Amino acid sequence: MLGTIAGALPGILEPVVLQETALDVGEFKLVPALMVVVMLAVFLGVGYFFRVAAVDELWVAGRSIGSIENGMAIGANWMSAASYLGVAALVATLGYFGLAYVVGWTTGYFILLIFMAAQFRRFGKYTAPDFVGDRFYSDWARGIAAFTTLAIAFTYAIGQASGMGLMAQYIFGVSYEVGVILLMAVTIGYVALSGMLGTTKNMAIQYVILIIAFTLGLYATGWAEGWSIALPYLEAGPQVAEAASLEAQFVEPFANVGYYGWIALAFSLIVGTCGLPHVLVRFYTVDNERTARWSTVWGLFFICLLYWGTATYAAFGGLLYDREVTDGGGFTGMSGEEADALVVLTTQLAGLPEWLVGLVAAGAVAAALATTSGLFITASSAAAHDIYTNLYRENATQREQLIVGRTTILGIGALVTLIGLNPPALIGELVAMAFAIAGTIFFPVFFLGLWWENTTREGAITGMLVGMLVSFGAIVNDTVVPMYTGVDEAMIPALATWVPGTSSALVGVPIVFVVIIVGSILTDDPPQDVKRLVRQCHSPEPMQQMETAEDVATDGGTTEE
Description:
CATH topology: Sodium/glucose cotransporter
Distance between the termini: 71 Å
Number of helices: 25
Largest sheet: none
Low-confidence stretches: 1-21, 557-561
Number of domains: 1
Radius of gyration: 23 Å
Strand content: under 5%
Shape: globular
Mean pLDDT: 82
């Protein structure tokens, strides 16, 4: 039966003509192109239908999203090009070290579920900088948080632009640069039009597309090659063993990077997950804390559906690359472009029909679009709500906020497109840098702000500034300086070893925690109304729909110690 399935599947349509070298990017592919065009048209249509005219719909979708829909949006928002394409690439090229990405990104959601999701919703603001500004009663704190949000969105989105360009190369037969410009233009258009409400609706659709495409490609590859029948995740043992026989470092722990590097990366991704503004804002789009918790549970479930298959894709793709491209020369030496496109490349090298390979590529586009849209919304809210309205023009009208928000989307979109034409690192590495920034600067502030009512504004501001020094300094040292000076190594090699740009949180987070705690002890306690807000975030009393901690505290929350 297995042989029948394997033999019949490639004949459904004419298979992709394999090239001597990696991904077939030389020509326009009609069926995949039609898939992507229809998909983009749907996204634009949904964005137009759910277009916004009110600020709460632009930033938090009117707090009207249900738990399953929000869980799907969390999954799509999370399933960036780094997850859809980059994790399989990193596991294939770096072996065991690549699993740190899966461990880090999923573990972080358990911390969110237990310690932060419901508390953030109870606090009840629009944005992460909004929380920082009100919790630490400081415009300086709000401004630093808004700048950090913009930096995270910018760094993270570059990786998504890179993924879009790679997929456009395959689907449309255009150059990488044209692909980046084309798909980024569509993303900018529908996000600027729709705001958070339309973006959330689109994210749910995008999740369905990407998980079907990813899973179908994996199953079809297993069937076509005779490697699996029902569950390729569990049946891929022989392929993993074969890949290990070709490349020992594929399964050998710490062969590429030592113990410290693995732990540093996993830790940075765990705390980074808890500090990403575009993830945390999802908890503001629901009506109460119970829905926020269940959104996290559903989101983790939807995320695991994809992560379950990344290592299997790496094994399948590595073997096919060794057989079809290097002719027994191994697979860990594939180029960065080939690695980043490995999920799509795997289905092509398996000789699957062009429409199916195109569907997998379309799933990657959906993943990149979903995350980029979430990043652009958080960036626009940081600029329009936190900087323009709260710091510059307190009586700004809704129309003014919408104009500033949409202008920010256009501006950051153009800048991301420009840098994305020549990205400074692999997709997964770019995303890891964004996580390191979020984990080092935001996680200590969020955690202590929610769980220690005596955290002061002075401690928080000092901690965030120290976090910026550590995280941005690490990226400049080992990524920015080498790229723009032509030097092959980091400016300070020893610093790059112990505080790499992708994993700076292992060093930075403990330092920032200490700085915040010491700074808070040495300065005056926060005002009583701020302490009251923190206590209401942990009250056992359920909140009414659309209610916030500020509403409850104002109506009679206690201030006793």
